[in-house]
Write a structure and sequence with these properties.
There is one protein chain. This protein is mostly helical. The chain has one domain (21-159). It has helices at 2-15, 21-36, 43-54, 58-64, 73-88, 95-106, 110-118, 122-164. Helix 2 (21-36) runs parallel beside helix 4 (58-64), helix 5 runs antiparallel to helix 6 and helix 5 crosses helix 8 (122-164).
Length: 176
């Protein structure tokens, strides 16, 4: 029950974000771009820096980095390495790779995981980052399109509510 309330709360907070749908969607895409890179402790800082550079929403950029969380670190890092190693011509199953995958499976600490990745060596680190860049280049545009559609729909919904003067069924005392 608590999880359902929390999800609903954050969904309503997302609906209340103000701004141009393009800026909000661009922030989300930049956050997803930073979130899929294997730069674990620096993803939020990178997302905000990119949002400042591209004049996008910093809040949605931070939200976009949530794509990288302990539940999907294994998949992100596994495929980042696999793609990068394939592009660089490195054999996929090296000792450093198995050490990193074991650290992902058994450790929930992002700083320890980042230390393991950075300590794996130059070629392994390069494979992770190259694969992460390729993965980010494919996921960020998808999230841009999805979030642009979402934020445009929210904007239309707000404008219709304002024009009609109808009250929101969830909050009858407020007009959105």
């Amino acid at each position: 029950m608590v999880l359902k309330r929390r999800v609903k709360y954050y969904y309503l907070k997302l609906l209340r974000l103000k701004g141009d749908p393009h800026d909000l969607a661009m922030g989300m895409a930049l956050g997803v771009f930073a979130g899929t890179l294997p730069a674990l402790p620096f993803q939020s800082a990178l997302a905000i820096a990119l949002a400042l550079l591209f004049r996008a929403s910093k809040i949605t950029a931070l939200l976009g980095t949530w794509i990288s969380n302990p539940l999907n670190w294994y998949f992100l890092y596994f495929y980042s390495y696999k793609i990068g190693a394939g592009l660089m011509g490195i054999k996929e199953k090296g000792k450093s790779f198995s050490t990193i995958i074991d650290a992902i499976k058994h450790s929930g600490d992002p700083v320890e995981l980042a230390g393991t990745i950075f300590g794996a060596g130059g070629w392994t680190l390069a494979a992770f980052f190259l694969g992460g860049l390729v993965l980010s280049a494919f996921t960020a545009p998808v999230f841009y399109c999805l979030s642009l559609y979402f934020f445009r729909a929210v904007k239309r919904w707000r404008e219709n509510r304002r024009m009609e003067g109808k009250r929101c069924p969830l909050f009858p005392w407020r007009v959105f």
